[in-house]
């Protein structure tokens, strides 16, 4: 058979068009097809085609464009079958069409040139070998141009230079017939791009060697990120750039350029070499602009049970976040208008590249997937029009194009049946949102009953993990694990995480100020407004006494004033300075002013950092201050010469508007505040005052049932009692109470409506566009 292919050629080296024609001929034949061929080959001991092999071939008909014949030929090729053997089997089979498919032209390329990467200065060799009925001639091309003096089977360039990189192909002629080889790509790496390399090129053949590593960089927003890596070996390495483990679209070249517009976290880059995988070093690219947090703790409710833990929780988180270089605004006991205005001021600090964090502790509820924070002046019962919708705030943060939006909601998530509105908040789908709920859907969040000041359950465990240098979702996962081991709330409160965060963003990420000096200056100026303390003063009195007047901030809206006697004349038997005559807007209790210890005036959290031997006064609710803060320092002294009758000297002091008072949160709500993004069926002025009472009253408790007399309640726990004559009948039993929703005892007259009853509803009602856009992580 002079017109057939070389019988010694392995069938695995047959050209694809030839293989396709043979397979088509075998697949379409019923009595002389691949099954009969398998039976013939199965009798040959050297090929060992078993019944299992035939069954595997038959399954190929279930695949799109699958071919049992191709699978059979592949198995035969792997076991050493040559073209001569296949020709004999096809003749025995009697499939003349398949036999004709093996007839070849006068020319066949046996060895194809192979792509490779190498270092400049080394030797390049590409090979192409063909056979024909007559002598063959070769000509090499680089793209469409002939390579001069390259008419042999081997193309050799010694030494190779950067300009030699490109695509090569070989044309083979045999008489009037010619064939082109496959394209071979040559990648030449610049020897100056690295300081070390292998001295002998032959050691690189057949192995992938990493030659150029990408380098870590620090960039400003708007700059171009340029990364390069390189490997050498044969066949040529293939590249795929990754960012945080995720392949970058179109990132398949050695060099990567990205225009930095947002904060970028660690990149992980790698390249692939067929079955071999090799990763470059991890590269950190940090471009952060600022980190801002708004912390609100509501505890002194006017129409609802009082809380304790929010004050401690906000204080502890404030100190931890400041260690992470967050700009923190921490506020206690805000009304609805104050909360909305505080959010507006918080939003002024946000812009592209900023991490924004909102923490809220207090009463709350969740309807239809939307979370609502309850102000301290909320009516009884309250509705969405009286509260702040968290999703509305998120919408405004998205408009600021922040890099990270974190919401930590330490509140109950029970359903509020008094509120039948469905907020219409349309959110964008972004990969930078993290919700950490202190409890699961339709459940309570607890604070521990105690005679002192302790954290709520959520912050008790959160503060132990907050400084961890981990992705924020990893931190919350660990908090969830810790909470799950807490016996007091096991089975009653579990942290729930909802996240769409795709990149590795951590609260510990460093800050790289943005390029805009004007923007940075505006941020600092706005931030300073809420955190400027009055300077300490030294007051001299005509009697010769000298007083130090000092100030400290417990929260952004809580100011501590202390007075200290610096100098007392010897002729005085007694000398003391106290402050008085404060604005009635601050509602300061005279009995808790000018106390000898911080604790006596309610300063429990800041007491260790205050100077000793002073008189202390705590001024809260500074956000209510409409005018500059003016008060009187009164010096009271006695002289032995005057029978120790008290003598008074006074000085009027004006310290302007301290801390948060400068932001005028008491003002009327802005027209573009967060209220406007959450469409409600009724406004606060038109919301109904009462709702029909439910049939049953809901007890909120920590799960330890106790039947006991009211007079025997433990002093360390509070109880929630059925209001006599109200819904649900009389209260004959009580529960120890750990709930954030109800921590103080509550009594109601028969005519007074109870607080909103929050209960579960069908989960299908809770689906919203926002929830569907997030990845639910249930601890």
UniProtKB/TrEMBL annotation:
<dbReference type="InterPro" id="IPR036179">
    <property type="entry name" value="Ig-like_dom_sf"/>
</dbReference>
<dbReference type="InterPro" id="IPR011029">
    <property type="entry name" value="DEATH-like_dom_sf"/>
</dbReference>
<dbReference type="InterPro" id="IPR001309">
    <property type="entry name" value="Pept_C14_p20"/>
</dbReference>
<dbReference type="InterPro" id="IPR037940">
    <property type="entry name" value="MALT1_Death"/>
</dbReference>
<protein>
    <submittedName>
        <fullName>MALT paracaspase 1</fullName>
    </submittedName>
</protein>
<dbReference type="InterPro" id="IPR003598">
    <property type="entry name" value="Ig_sub2"/>
</dbReference>
<dbReference type="InterPro" id="IPR013783">
    <property type="entry name" value="Ig-like_fold"/>
</dbReference>
<dbReference type="Pfam" id="PF18703">
    <property type="entry name" value="MALT1_Ig"/>
</dbReference>
<dbReference type="InterPro" id="IPR007110">
    <property type="entry name" value="Ig-like_dom"/>
</dbReference>
<dbReference type="InterPro" id="IPR011600">
    <property type="entry name" value="Pept_C14_caspase"/>
</dbReference>
<dbReference type="Pfam" id="PF13895">
    <property type="entry name" value="Ig_2"/>
</dbReference>
<dbReference type="InterPro" id="IPR029030">
    <property type="entry name" value="Caspase-like_dom_sf"/>
</dbReference>
<dbReference type="InterPro" id="IPR041077">
    <property type="entry name" value="MALT1_Ig"/>
</dbReference>
<dbReference type="GO" id="GO:0006508">
    <property type="term" value="P:proteolysis"/>
</dbReference>
<feature type="domain" description="Ig-like">
    <location>
        <begin position="107"/>
        <end position="181"/>
    </location>
</feature>
<dbReference type="InterPro" id="IPR003599">
    <property type="entry name" value="Ig_sub"/>
</dbReference>
<dbReference type="InterPro" id="IPR033540">
    <property type="entry name" value="MALT1_IG-like_dom_sf"/>
</dbReference>
<dbReference type="Pfam" id="PF00656">
    <property type="entry name" value="Peptidase_C14"/>
</dbReference>
<dbReference type="InterPro" id="IPR052039">
    <property type="entry name" value="Caspase-related_regulators"/>
</dbReference>
<feature type="domain" description="Caspase family p20">
    <location>
        <begin position="289"/>
        <end position="416"/>
    </location>
</feature>
<dbReference type="GO" id="GO:0004197">
    <property type="term" value="F:cysteine-type endopeptidase activity"/>
</dbReference>
